[in-house]
Amino acid sequence: SPSAPSPAPLPKAELHLHIEGTLEPGLAFALARRNGIELPYADEDVLRRAYSFADLQSFLNLYYALMAVLRTEDDFADLAHAYLARAKEQGVRHAEIFFDPQAHTARGVPIGTVIDGLARALDAAEETYGISTRLIMCFLRDESAESALATFEAARPHLDRITAVGLDSAEVGHPPSKFREVFARAREAGLKCVAHAGEEGPPAYVWEALDVLGVDRIDHGVRSMEDPRLVARLVADQVPLTVCPLSNVRLRVIDDLADHPLPAMLDAGLLVTVNSDDPSYFGGYADDNFRAVRDALGLDQETLRTLARNSFRASFLDEAVRERYL
Ligand code: HPA
Ligand code: ZN
Fold first, then answer.
1. Which residue among 17, 43, 84, 285 is least crowded, i.e. fewest CB within 10 A of its CB?
2. Alpha helices (runs of H) in the chain, residue ranges in sequence order
3. CA of 278 to the centre of ligand 1 (A)
4. In this structure, is residue 35 part of a structural domain?
5. Is 199 among the residues known to form the active site?
6. Is the ipTM of this complex over 0.85?
């Protein structure tokens, strides 16, 4: 007999998604051709075989190298459009999307080209797919504090398109406190703040993100579970954690999905969400992550609904819009 049709994916918000991490091999080769760039891979299959990572840094090396194909406003619009088409199929109703301006300005691509291209695709997606979106501008923590400040100033004319600032790239050795000043400037400008912390870095980096940067959410934060006082703080303040299960396995933050702390995090009363991080590299988009944790951890439908509801609670949507999803 024919297999049962798969149920419609739960409506959800995606809150931890690097737009550059949605670059699929097919689009990478298409953009390389369009821009006359030679990629150091014979074809898509050879490239895909390079997607085997020992840790965060080994992923970042490939992630930054492939960005060479992103040069024009159209490239950024095509990239975001391709993600939003996938997101729609995965039940995503709202997406808060990271981008890494320094990874592009360092190659001579103006920040306005990046933001205008992304914004064009986001506006179209609202029309075509009914997906609402926000942009989160991330600073590369393995670059200097001065470079982050210069990036923030270069972005000032575009701040009407930007909801929040974030902090990403190689974590260990680059604590949040290094970026105290640029986050203070962002808050003064009325932006929300988030930071990757407690992915490879220690719980102390999560404390700093909260107490020095004043973040509204923690990205990843899985290592918070090592510090009971920190868990108590995150629970008391209901600070959202944007957890990325497939990413954690691929980057070897967690050995096996069956050992993921997600159920313990939920049991502790943390406001946890499930997200895809860099879906092209880590083997799954938003609902793929939901189905992976369901299967590996035996989560029931009520728990999956809680995770989906949490994604809207943790979002930067206006209260009235958020309520409609809860
Ligand atoms: N961690 C840190 N930086 C990143 C990631 C991540 O998972 N993805 C893209 N940049
Ligand atoms: Zn991330």
1. 43
2. 25-35, 44-49, 56-66, 73-89, 101-105, 111-129, 145-155, 180-188, 203-211, 228-236, 245-250, 262-267, 279-282, 286-297, 301-313, 319-325
3. 8
4. yes
5. yes
6. yes
- Give the tens place of pLDDT for each residue, 78-122: 999 999 999 999 999 999 999 999 999 999 999 999 999 999 999
Does some domain include residue 325? no
Contact 83, 275 (CB under 8 A): no
Q: How far apart are CA 127 and CA 26, in angstroms?
A: 26
Q: Could you tell me the distance, in angstroms and rounded to a whole number, from the CA of residue 85 to the centre of ligand 1?
A: 22
Specify the number of domains making up the chain: 1
Instruction: Calculate how far, in angstroms, residue 46's C-alpha sits from the geometric centre of ligand 2.
Output: 25
**Residue 326 included in any domain:** no
Domain that holds residue 214: 12-315
CATH number where 246 lies: 3.20.20.140
Burial of 305 (0-12, 13-18, 19+ CB in 10 A): exposed
Ramachandran category for residue 108: left, alpha or beta (phi over 0 → left; psi -120 to 50 → alpha): left
Q: Whose CA is nearest to atom 4 of ligand 1?
A: 169
Q: Which two tokens stand for residue 151?
A: 């990036």
Residue with CA nearest ligand 1 atom 10: 169
Buried b (16+ CB within 10 A) or exposed e, 112-132: ebbbebbbbbbeebeeebebb
> What ligand has the least distance to the C-alpha of 199?
1
Instruction: For residue 97, give the H/E element and its range.
Output: strand 92-99
- How much is the pTM? 0.97
